[in-house]
């Protein structure tokens, strides 16, 4: 299945994808990892990734998201694809621009290092090709901010245009309190008169909605929007969820996670919303988002949860790497 076909699919779970950030490396900032992943050897996380991928596929999920910086996520996905040769209808997206540096430790001083240079692209593109080969459908620059050289480096743009000409969709992910500015700048990047980026992946959830207008503009300009961190790294799930979200979940009979993801799915510009589940039980609960029906009262109360972007991103930056 091509990325373009995925963007126009109409099955119940067509707009939900599975990201392997939580299970591709032993340390991450999602809350509750001690309970979700008591064993985090390479073998244990490979087994968990296979379990999640099998469950996601069986439940109709067809978009799978990895990255060079997600530890061994590309490797785990590549192994799963080789072990399931009859599965040809999934869309695979990866990202370059961060290098994983923790060496499978949870107490590393730095877990990843950002580099959006041409040299970094050339190195990481080769690494991704070695693992995923022709199964790669989408390649995104990881965590672009307004000051990133990736928005202005014409040599890099030429490399990415060549990749697009080979059939791989080119996009970017954004992060930080100025996501909207990065999105708007990316929409204006062209090569040979053609828009370079065809997708944008951004953080959007009940606490952080500031990118919404820019994402709507990107959608109107023809880009497919992917949403990450719909549960705010666990802040909108389980005991961490705010009271308004817990009340809405109780009213619907579904989990806080499903309600949080349903809020994102309500956005007309949301093309693919990612689940970052670490267990199959979480994945099933996440996918119940397609069944959530919220009334006006709950929607009004949930709208009051929005935080100032700077405050949201300060909190996120303070989350420990468990």
UniProtKB/TrEMBL annotation:
UniProt domain NADP-dependent oxidoreductase: residue ranges: 47-305
InterPro entries per record: AKR2_Oxidoreductase, NAD(P)_OxRdtase_dom_sf, NADP_OxRdtase_dom
Pfam families linked: Aldo_ket_red (PF00248)
Record Gene3D superfamilies: NADP-dependent oxidoreductase domain
Protein name: Aldo/keto reductase
Organism: Streptomyces alboflavus
Organism placement in taxonomy: Bacteria, Bacillati, Actinomycetota, Actinomycetes, Kitasatosporales
